[in-house]
Amino acid sequence: MGSGNREKFDNPVVEWVDSRLPVFTLMQKEYGVFPTPKNFNYFWNFGAIAMVMLVTMIVTGIALAMHYVPHAAMAFDSVERIMRDVNHGWLLRYLHANGASFFFIAVYIHIFRGMYYGSYKNPRELLWILGVVIFLLMMATAFMGYVLPWGQMSFWGATVITNLFSAIPLVGDSIVTLLWGGFSVDNPTLNRFFALHYLLPFVIFAVVFLHVWALHVTGSNNPLGIEPKGKQDTLPFHPYYTIKDTFGLLVFLLLYVGYAFFAPNDLGHPDNYIPADPLVTPAHIVPEWYFLPFYAILRAITFDIAIPFTDIVLISAKLGGVLAMFGSIALLFALPFLDKHPVRSAVFRPWFKIAFLALAVVTFILGVCGGKPAEGLWVPLAQICTLYYYAFFLVIIPFLNKKEPVAKLPPSIHEAVLSKNKQG
Amino acid sequence: MSTKPTPANDQADEPTRRDFLYLTAAAFGVVGAGSVAWPLIDQMNPAADTLALSTTEVDLSPIEEGQAITVMWRGKPVFIRHRTAKEIEEAKADDSADLRDPQTDAERVKEGHEKWLVMVGICTHLGCVPLGQKDTDVKGEYDGWFCPCHGSHYDSSGRIRKGPAPTNLAVPEYTFLNETTIKIG
User: Fold this and answer.
1) How far is CA A334 from CA A231, A298, A339, A341, A393, in A?
2) What gap in Å lies between CA B123 and CA A265, rounded to an integer?
3) What is the C-alpha to C-alpha distance for residues A333 and A130, in angstroms, rounded to an integer?
4) How far is CA B14 from CA A351, B2, B10, B23, in A?
5) What is the CATH number of the domain that holds B127?
6) What is the rounded CA–CA span in Å between residue A186 and residue A159?
7) Residue B93: which H helix or E strand, with range?
8) Please, what are the averages of pLDDT over each run of 10 residues along chain A (424 residues)?
9) Annotated catalytic residue B150
10) Residues in contact with A170: Cβ distance below 8 Å, sequence separation at least 6, in sequence order
11) What residues of A are annotated to the active site?
């Protein structure tokens, strides 16, 4: 970020600022002429899309916070007031509620892209890890945001999720009391969740800055998974990718506002329009759709893990479920160190490609299981899928490290693109 | 630093007064930071007014045999059930069954008041309120309570019999003030 060998700007105002604080030089270097692989497909739009969604959430969220009342007796009514009385309140709330879903859609596609094309591999491990940190922060923020309307799903979702911490041996109950600020989910809980829901997006913003910084050190990966070798392999970010990102963004935003305008409650749950009641549990508690695969993993552990032939339980079913759920995200942190195969892109790894696409299908099935009651065939199905999820990271990837043949890669992005054009 | 005399070779690895000062200063700083951090963490624990609401008195006289009521205590539902002779019998008969959290029925009620079962009505799995208080509710496979969230079955003594919950429904501290009044907490 130092000024270094700065080129002069013609505009005297820009030049005056830039010679004192080189922000224009920085933008020119990082977003103007920044060399970017020339073979991106549309999967590479979703980082920029996620960034726009984060800003949308912060802007609509700050507006909503001007009208929302974080008190157990008033929260529900204040949300209804936003919907009925506040000028454009309905619009702000529906954009915020559906915005959370579309933020997750963008991020899930972004993660899928990173895994499919091996973007987590050397030298981009830290870039990937920062991304998983953002994902975790998003989950915490989304969970606390869903509690704020103080409907039945808000209350019981908060109860179930905070109770996860009671599974921790010895200190679990003290931690839950500390989280609640009382003996059950109540006004103190709502108050602190509001404070943290306001704080965390800015923490996310800071980590996104580090994520983008790390990206601009290593440069982007690309569908071929080979590093650019020179100018013939890259394009300047502007105008080529500013335009491509803008086009993809507009298509994405159309879907988003389509939901917000025409189906604003389709992704939510009707029970959350019933005010919170600590004495009545809804018949079927489900989290928001973006948590369903993890919820299914939580519920898949229905058995205690004991020392064989004794009654000594090492891990109760409850603790086992909690460990399996958090473990499924911990595996994402470990992914760059588990996958040692020298080829990045699944395009040149037919075995990895099959195993990974199966993982995507399995994760989808887990999501379906998570939305169903924990009974009948849904339980063994979720257990099989959980087993595959773990096996993918802990068995299949180490196996492929040793056994999957190393394909011959194209000599350069440039030549690969040209030969593809000749064939087509 | 340039004026510092070069230590003799045999003293090079010995801790110096400066090392000692570094260590004590760092330790002092850690204790100081911890003592400032603790109030910031402890403020999240229940406040004095929340703790003040910690006992409830309940009049049992209007509860007929086979009926149950739910009262609030510390923001949680407490189940109070006037058990029938059949339910007490079932509960005692299962004392020797294969229990996940072994407890006899006698350990879960007050002596001489076996017909009154008082429990915190919160599933020990993830904190839902089990069904079974109303006559029309699903009572699970053991004629007690059933948690709809993740399918835990409790028997007529509130003991966990089937499903993911690790322990029996908790019995809160309570005392009989007289034959028909209890104080919870």
Assistant:
1) 34, 20, 9, 14, 9
2) 30
3) 9
4) 58, 20, 8, 15
5) 2.102.10.10
6) 10
7) helix B85-93
8) 74 95 93 94 97 97 97 96 96 97 98 97 97 98 97 93 88 92 92 97 98 96 95 94 96 97 95 92 87 94 79 80 94 97 96 97 96 87 97 97 94 89 63
9) yes
10) none
11) 216, 220, 244-245, 288
Could you tell me if B143 and B176 lie in one domain?
Answer: yes
Distance in angstroms (rounded) separating the CA atoms of residues B153 and A332: 35
Domain spans of chain A?
A: 26-277+285-423
Which residues neighbour B12 within 8 Å (Cβ) at sequence distance 6 or greater?
A: none
CATH among 2.60.40.1910, 1.10.10.10, 1.10.287.770, 1.20.810.10 for A26-277+285-423: 1.20.810.10
Whole-angstrom distance, CA of residue A304 vs CA of residue A268? 34
Torsion from C-alpha of B21, B26, B28, B32, nearest 10 degrees: 160
What is the domain range of residue B93? Answer: 50-184
Q: Measured between alpha carbons, how far is A188 from A71 in angstroms, rounded to an integer?
A: 8
Chain A interface includes B125 (CB < 8 A): yes
Global model pTM greater than 0.90: no
What is the ipTM for the molecules in this complex? 0.75
B38 shares its domain with B63: no
By C-alpha distance, which of A106, A31, A49, A38 is closest to A247? Answer: A49
Which of the residues B126, B141, B153 would you substitute to probe the A interface, choosing the one with the greatest number of A C-beta atoms within 10 Å?
B126
Q: Which residues pair with B78 in a beta bridge?
A: B71, B120
B185 touches chain A (CB under 8 A): no
Chain A interface includes B40 (CB < 8 A): no
In which element (H, E) is residue A139 found?
A: helix A125-147
In a domain, B156, yes or no: yes
The burial of B149, by beta-carbon neighbours within 10 Å (0-12 exposed, 13-18 middle, 19 or more buried), is given as buried
Same domain, B80 and B30: no
Interface test with A, best of B38, B43, B73, B149 (most A CBs within 10 A): B149
The per-residue DSSP string of A264-309 comes to TTTTS-GGGGSB--TT---SS----GGGHHHHHHHHH--S-EE-TT
Which element (helix H / strand E) includes A247? helix A237-262
Instruction: Specify whether B66 is located in the same domain as B21.
Output: no
Extract the tokens encoding A198. 């306001």
**B50 forms bridges with which residues in the sheet?**
none
The closest alpha carbon to A128, from A204, A215, A216, belongs to A215
Residue of chain A whose alpha carbon sits nearest to that of B74: A183
Instruction: Output the six-digit token pair for A43.
Output: 């999967």
How far apart CA B69 and CA B48 sit, in angstroms, is 29
CA dihedral B59, B64, B65, B66 (to 10 degrees): -100
Exposure string (b/e) for A7-21, b if CB count within 10 Å is 16 or more? eebeeeeeeeebeee
DSSP class of residue A80 equals: H
Classified as helix, coil or strand, B15 is coil
Beta partners for residue B73, in sequence order: B76
Report which of A148, A101, A164, A28 is spatially closest to residue A290, judged by C-alpha positions.
A101
